[in-house]
Amino acid sequence: MWRRTYLLLLLVRIYLALSPSYIHPDENFQGPEIIAGQIFGYPNLKTWEFTSSHPVRSLFPLWPVYGLPMLVLQWVWTETGKEAVAPRVIYYALRLLMFILSFVLEDWAIHELVQSPRERKIAVVLVASSYVTWTYQTHTFSNAVETLVVLWSIVMIQRILDHKHRSSLLSSALLGSLVAFGLFNRITIPAFLVPPGLYLVPHFLRKPFSPLVLCSTFILTSILAVAVDSYFYHSSSTESLFQILRSDPTITPLNSLLYNTSTSNLSLHGLHPPYQHLIASLPLLLGPALLLFCYIRKPSLSIISALSATVLLSLIPHQEPRFLLPAVPLILSSVRLPRPGPLRRYWFISWIIFNIILGVLMGIFHQGGVVPAQIWLGQQRQHDAELSKVFWWRTYSPPVWLLGGRELVTVDLMGMKADEMMDRVVGAVHGHKGEEHSSVGLVAPRSSVDLDAWIETTKSTLVFEQMWMTGNHLNLDDLDFEEDGVRGTLERVLGRRGLVVWKVSRNLESQR
Q1: How far apart are CA 451 and CA 457, in angstroms?
Q2: Mode of pairing for the β-strands spanning 499-506 and 439-445
Q3: What does the pLDDT look like over 210-264, one tens digit per residue?
């Protein structure tokens, strides 16, 4: 029974992995956007993490995770004599890769960490049935990569502890490399690994070669990472890489640590109370599984890692649910289910409903039109859309690399006020401040009712032509319960869900 359930959940996972929902801009701009620009020369937007005088994002973990698959695709396309790889193919190939990494490495790690066959079956199904596994873990998040690194680091720690009479040099070597890789991926990884890693101290005192090997692989991997980052961030320098490493190496984890220990810096991204993770992040990620804290099997490295990270990361003023992503499989693999009876039945029902709702929301509808719209715009010559400039309003920032080689000016208006947005579009259409285009594009959610009145009142001077639309788009940032009330807001956001690409041009008939 559990095998059939697991296979069904795998189908759900791969379906949502290949659904183009858009959970957070970081899933594009902290990985694929940069690497696609490096390999294919696509236009791309480098965010502040990469353009700062002290960059906080490392290129080192991006190359094996995203760069290698892109290089393989490029090679395959070249060998078969096809044209350049379409961004659409790259996008879905990366999603498929993240699914495979989740299916193979995450599920395998759970098998390693849970010793009892009976408890292992429950743990595997619990992790596989979580919407976090279906969505966050199959998107190109650095947090998803961190989850895999944390899980396998704990596996290595457990292997070393299970063989106390051996030096476990291979496990120690792998652990050193994993920790270094994880540190250059996200500096939060020590919060997950230091507390369980303390259990290794007695073993290291007995087997001094183990810490020596661990430190050696950690240092070698870190040197390689610093070399990769220094080469990238000093690409315009005339100095050799060796000279750069001697005089001005780029150490992104150190830069990130210095940046994130400044409250003034974090205030730019939003400050939260210390209890944010406890009252918001964990309930959002785990839902009814929070009740299973009463059924923790026994203290283990997994639960120690999850709880210590939750406490330590709560000390940082800026908190987001995805920062606790590795805690989800760690917790779900450390709990038992209630005894058979009404309580277990009610828990199962609530768990299923919770994950279906969040899975559909985050896996299909959340900003689900942004990626398909951008891919369509990149193919606009095939559709004769004749757009040279496109304004995006009240959506997440569109990934520029998905345009491929198409020269199209992308203007992200974010959550700009409606009247300001209208001025920008009108100015572009009528040639305001040197901007003159026969027609411009406007991408906006259908739930933005401000557009209805504007289209009606300007039809004598502007022509709005709907070029493309999808209904699989929800804009949760457009919720306004204070202005529209609960019912009015839900009717507008849910009832008018969707994303539209408008072609806005002058009404030439009115000018005759």
Answers
A1: 10
A2: antiparallel
A3: 999 999 999 999 999 999 999 999 987 778 888 988 888 999 999 999 999 988 8
